[in-house]
Specification:
This protein is an alpha/beta fold. Helix content is 40%, strand content 19%. It contains eleven helices and 15 strands. The strands form five sheets. The protein has a seven-stranded parallel beta sheet, with helices on both faces. A two-stranded parallel ribbon has the order 6-15. It has a two-stranded parallel ribbon with strand order 8-11. The radius of gyration is 19 Å and the shape is globular.
């Protein structure tokens, strides 16, 4: 089947495209390349355009009328940057998604899988969150994801669409076949920073926040291998209609957590990194960054029940894949 993937030239989107291809499907990539990489689109059907360009979307569906679903990954994603640039984040993530969802509906593409975020959750006792746990998005980035969810839910109720919002926890690693990985040289994601520290590209890894109410004072997260995450998207589009049959009750929108079900602190992640890397790295403790929260980890029972999905790959595998990708990245990607 053909699947439209917005943001398909990015870190997660490109890995989803690889997983779709490995399962026999054809991704149709839509990406403006603001942060995505054209190298991740090679050999694939690719449209360099904005998700809010209605004429561009019309052209895609004229040329590929057999697209059966859309996976919406395109977004700005850096939490501290969102605090500094809320206008850009609300414009790119919310306003443009509003146009995208409306246009998809008008063009007859009414199955949408949305890349949401665990950052929408409030901090709860024990840190484990279910899909119905309290929400309190703590940054402009997180609030854009919450707003996008609400828009999609309202569209599903009003316009005959169906939506699956996948709330990602913390993706790490790279495509195990090394087709793609973190594409930015100065990543905001924690494992990217660990790799850069190990490779001497930054002087020390900053542990931001050491007084959170966790077992060792550092933030707690649910680190999920990006390949596990990608495979969940394939299962979501393959079983899209069955998901709503399993839900019953005429529902048209559902939220599903994607995580390992295990909480790992930042210190524990650093220790795992040093084990895989084989030696210590330089570390420094710093205050929390703007928008940081204590964190959460997933209860992933809904993903198992509705998709038959659960995370398979270990943190150590993700770390090894990230280190391997870092060795070849500059040969795959051509920086100016």
């Amino acid at each position: 089947m053909k699947v439209l993937v917005t943001g398909g030239a990015g870190y997660i989107g490109s890995t989803i495209c690889s997983a779709l291809e490995d399962s026999g499907h054809t991704p149709i990539i839509l990406d403006n390349l603001v942060t995505g990489r054209v190298e991740f689109t090679r050999g694939r059907i690719f449209y360099q355009d904005d998700i809010a360009n209605v004429a561009g979307l019309e052209r895609i569906f004229q040329e590929h009328p057999d697209i059966v679903a859309a996976i919406h990954c395109a977004a700005l994603i850096i939490v501290p940057e969102s605090v500094e640039k809320p206008y850009e984040y609300y414009t790119e993530n919310v306003a443009k998604s509003l146009v995208l969802f409306r246009t998809l509906n008008r063009l007859g593409c009414n199955r949408v899988v949305f890349s949401s975020s665990a950052s929408v959750y409030d901090t709860v006792p024990g840190f484990m969150v279910r899909e119905d746990s309290p929400l309190r998005p703590g940054s402009p980035y997180a609030r854009t994801k919450y707003m996008m969810e609400m828009i999609l839910q309202d569209f599903c109720h009003a316009y005959g669409m169906k939506g699956i919002a996948l709330r990602y926890f913390n993706p790490i690693g790279a495509d195990p076949k090394m087709r793609s990985g973190l594409q930015v040289r100065n990543p905001s994601l924690v494992l990217g920073k660990l790799v850069n520290t190990a490779r001497g590209l930054q002087p020390a890894f900053e542990i931001t926040g050491t007084t959170w109410p966790t077992r060792d004072g550092t933030g707690i997260r649910d680190y999920i291998h990006v390949w596990d995450l990608a495979e969940a998207h394939v299962m979501a589009v393959e079983q899209f209609d069955q998901v709503f049959e399993r839900l019953g009750g005429g529902q048209s929108y559902v939220v599903i957590n994607l995580g390992t079900g295990r909480g790992v602190t930042v210190r524990e992640l650093v220790e795992a990194f040093e084990r895989v890397y084989g030696k210590p790295i330089n570390k420094v403790e710093k205050p929390p960054r703007p928008g940081d929260v204590a964190g959460a980890y997933a209860n992933a029972d809904t993903a198992l029940r509705l998709l038959g999905w659960k995370a398979k790959l270990s943190i150590e595998q993700a770390i090894a894949d990230a280190l391997k990708w870092a060795e070849i990245r500059d040969r795959v990607l051509h920086y100016e």
